[in-house]
Write a structure and sequence with these properties.
Layout: E1 4-13, H1 15-30, E2 36-43, E3 46-52, E4 75-78, E5 83-88, E6 92-98, H2 113-129, E7 133-135, E8 144-148, E9 157-167, E10 170-178, H3 202-205, H4 221-233
Parallel strand pairs: 1-2, 3-4
Antiparallel strand pairs: 2-6, 3-5, 6-10, 7-8, 8-9, 9-10
Helix pairs in contact: 2-4
Length: 236
């Protein structure tokens, strides 16, 4: 089954609601009833915990500590994805690719999870490069690390977190990229084992970009960036 479809969910989506939708799409994709599908959405404020920190060869706990008490309106959820603690919420675009890794498309390398992850990083990297930002892949640190042109790669900070799950060689869960979200919730946790200060957002990197200056409730930032994502997928 060829092609790739995008579904952009309006408003804010609860974490469990999105999880159930992904599971439904996953089973449909296993049966070849739908093409590879990418969900684009924003979550209500939630801290999620995955299966555990990425292996780096160094001794460290599998999970970082949870915050003692959550702010009003913030939820907590366990997740099947890789990685440890992260935050999702308004102003952060979440990308859930439900893709069959059968080698039938460039974005779906056959039974190669590592290549799929590198492909996700490259896809986001192309979209960000069009905005004058460069990415610096980090060993044992899956995600997208970005820095402005003219700056040193060592100054790169993390703009997107990646954590996926696989069932019957179909992917679910995915990517969270910080665009206009409040960065404060990251200070409650060690996002995927890092200090909160490593996290950045597009609004701070591109202060002159008018679509990014309206905040999460603005009408322009999501369609503006979603269009760039779709264009980046088709760029070699």
């Amino acid at each position: 089954m060829a092609g790739l479809q995008f579904r952009s969910l309006p408003g804010l989506t609860g974490y469990e609601e999105a999880r159930q939708l992904q599971q439904e799409l996953l089973e449909q994709r296993v049966r070849d009833e739908i093409p590879d599908t990418v969900l684009l959405l924003e979550h209500r404020s939630v801290i999620t915990r995955g299966r555990g920190l990425q292996f780096t060869g160094q001794a460290r706990p599998r999970h970082m500590p949870l915050p003692v008490g959550l702010p009003a309106g913030m939820e907590f959820a366990e997740s099947e994805r890789g990685g440890d603690l992260t935050w999702h919420g308004p102003g952060q675009l979440v990308i859930y690719p439900v893709v069959k890794l059968d080698g039938s498309a460039p974005w779906a390398p056959r039974h190669d999870i590592a290549a799929f992850l590198r492909g996700l990083e490259a896809w986001l990297g192309r979209s960000l490069a069009e905005l004058g930002l460069l990415t610096d892949p980090r060993e044992n640190a899956t995600g997208v690390w970005v820095y402005p042109q003219g700056a040193a790669p060592a100054s790169a900070r993390k703009i997107a977190s990646i954590g996926i799950a696989i069932r019957k060689w179909v992917t679910w869960h995915g990517v969270a990229i910080n665009l206009v979200n409040d960065p404060g919730p990251f200070r409650l946790i060690s996002p995927c084992g890092f200090q909160p200060e490593v996290m950045t957002r597009l609004k701070d990197l591109l202060p002159a970009q008018k679509e990014l200056q309206q905040g999460p409730e603005g009408a322009d930032w999501r369609p503006w960036f979603e269009a760039r994502l779709k264009a980046g997928l088709n760029t070699p």
